[in-house]
């Protein structure tokens, strides 16, 4: 039995939404975890200091962390608030480039709760603001690629979990 032959190049989506090709040997795995907090018809989002777009709080899982540990750390770093994980509700896989480094991205999305009286503190240098957003009232291009669909899915899932 022979092994699969890797492609010479991999096409990645860049941080700004362009497509760029990279040598396949440069691509690294990057598991990441994100938390979607829902309040009625709103979700908690940060504004990326790198792109100016709305992002779901989260980021890379370190090799020694569980998904939940990384979720708590990344969410806390970006928002200043400790999340309460509810459930894993979505997964995506793609190829992207972050600061000209190509990754095979495995992204895990959790519904989370935050304290109702939480005061948000954006992560300096990475997040310029953190706020509740009605995703249906914001143009799709205001979101990081794919994030709008994910927050809409989170809203629907949260509604099924708590139909009040």
User: β content, as a range?
Assistant: 35-45%
Question: Structurally, how many domains make up the residues?
Answer: 1
- Which CATH class? Alpha Beta
H and E order? EEEEEEHEEEH
Please bin the fraction of helical residues: 10-25%
> Largest sheet at a glance?
9 strands, mixed
Radius of gyration: 17 Å
Rounded to the nearest angstrom, the distance between the terminal CA atoms is 56 Å
Approximate shape: globular
CATH topology-level name: Nucleoside Triphosphate Pyrophosphohydrolase
Low-confidence stretches: none
Looking at this structure, what is the CATH superfamily?
Nucleoside Triphosphate Pyrophosphohydrolase
CATH architecture label:
Alpha-Beta Complex
**Number of strand segments:** 9
Structural category is alpha+beta
Mean pLDDT: 93
Number of helices: 2
How would you sum up this structure, described in words?
- By secondary structure, this protein is an alpha+beta fold.
- It has a single domain (25-161), classed as Alpha-Beta Complex (Nucleoside Triphosphate Pyrophosphohydrolase), CATH 3.90.79.10.
- It is 17% helix and 43% strand.
- The chain contains two helices and nine strands, in the order E-E-E-E-E-E-H-E-E-E-H.
- Strands 1, 2, 3, 4, 5, 6, 7, 8 and 9 form a nine-stranded mixed β-sheet that branches.
- The radius of gyration is 17 Å and the shape is globular.
- It starts with 8 loop residues before the first strand and ends with a helix.
- The mean pLDDT is 93.
């Amino acid at each position: 039995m022979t092994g699969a032959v890797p492609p010479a190049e991999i096409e990645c989506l860049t941080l700004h939404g362009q497509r760029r090709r990279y040598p396949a040997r440069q691509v690294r795995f990057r598991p990441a975890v994100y938390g979607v907090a829902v309040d009625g018809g709103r979700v908690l989002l940060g504004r990326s200091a790198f792109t100016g777009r709305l992002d779901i709080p989260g980021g890379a899982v370190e090799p020694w962390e569980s998904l939940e540990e990384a979720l708590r750390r990344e969410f806390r770093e970006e928002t200043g608030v400790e999340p309460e994980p509810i459930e894993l509700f979505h997964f995506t896989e793609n190829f992207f480039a972050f600061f000209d480094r190509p990754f095979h991205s495995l992204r895990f999305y959790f519904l989370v709760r935050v304290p109702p009286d939480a005061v948000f503190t954006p992560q300096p240098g990475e997040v310029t603001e953190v706020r509740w957003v009605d995703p249906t009232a914001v143009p799709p291009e205001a979101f990081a690629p794919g994030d709008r669909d994910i927050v809409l899915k989170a809203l629907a899932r949260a509604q099924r979990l708590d139909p009040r």
